[in-house]
Amino acid sequence: MAPAAAQGGKKQKKKWSKGKVKDKAQHAVVMDKTIQERLNKDVLTYRLITTAVLVDRLKINGSLARKALADLEEKGVIKKIVGHHKLNIYTRAVAAAE
């Protein structure tokens, strides 16, 4: 005379998924000549420029992207729109001159 709750454990145990595995990004950590050329050529066409945009499109490290943005701003190629300690947003300098 076992209660109904005791006999309810007949179905199989839940199988837990192994989880999703994200592939490791192989981004460049040193600015070489090809990346520098692509940076100088392609950034002029971008309307919105952030660290994440450079990381995604040029496949470079985040710290390298921040240094590149600071360098481009110093040269006058891009102009800072929003300066925040977490996110800096830039745009083309030529767009503002038109």
Describe it.
- The chain has a domain at 33-92: Arc Repressor Mutant, subunit A, CATH 1.10.10.10.
- Helix 3 packs across helix 4 (62-75).
- A hairpin with a 4-residue loop joins strand 1 and strand 2.
- Helices cover 42% and strands 11% of the residues.
- It has helices at 4-7, 33-42, 51-58, 62-75, 93-97, and strands at 78-83, 88-92.
- Strands 1-2 form a two-stranded antiparallel ribbon.
- The protein is of the alpha+beta class and 98 residues long.
- The protein has 5 helices and 2 strands, in the order H-H-H-H-E-E-H.
- Belongs to the eukaryotic ribosomal protein eS25 family.
- It comes from Sphaerosporella brunnea.
- Residues 1-25 are annotated as: Disordered.
- Residues 10-19 have a biased composition (Basic residues).
- This is 40S ribosomal protein S25.
Draw up the topology in text.
Blueprint: H1 4-7, H2 33-42, H3 51-58, H4 62-75, E1 78-83, E2 88-92, H5 93-97
Antiparallel strand pairs: 1-2
Helix pairs in contact: 3-4
Protein name: 40S ribosomal protein S25
Region (Disordered): 1-25
Family: Belongs to the eukaryotic ribosomal protein eS25 family.
> What spatial form do the alpha-carbon principal axes imply?
elongated
Q: Please, what is the CATH homologous superfamily of one domain? A: Winged helix-like DNA-binding domain superfamily/Winged helix DNA-binding domain
Mean pLDDT over the full residue set: 85
Rg for CA atoms? 25 Å
* Number of helices, where a helix is a run of at least 4 consecutive DSSP H or I residues: 5
Structural class: alpha+beta
Q: Under the CATH scheme, which class of one domain?
A: Mainly Alpha
Low-pLDDT stretches: none
Number of strands: 2
For the record, the CATH architecture of one domain stands as: Orthogonal Bundle
Within the largest sheet, what's the order of strands?
Answer: 1-2
CATH fold topology of one domain: Arc Repressor Mutant, subunit A
**Gap between N and C termini, in Å?**
88 Å
Report strand %: 5-15%
What are the secondary-structure elements, in order, as H or E? Answer: HHHHEEH
Largest sheet: 2 strands, antiparallel
Query: Helicity range of the residues?
Result: 40-55%
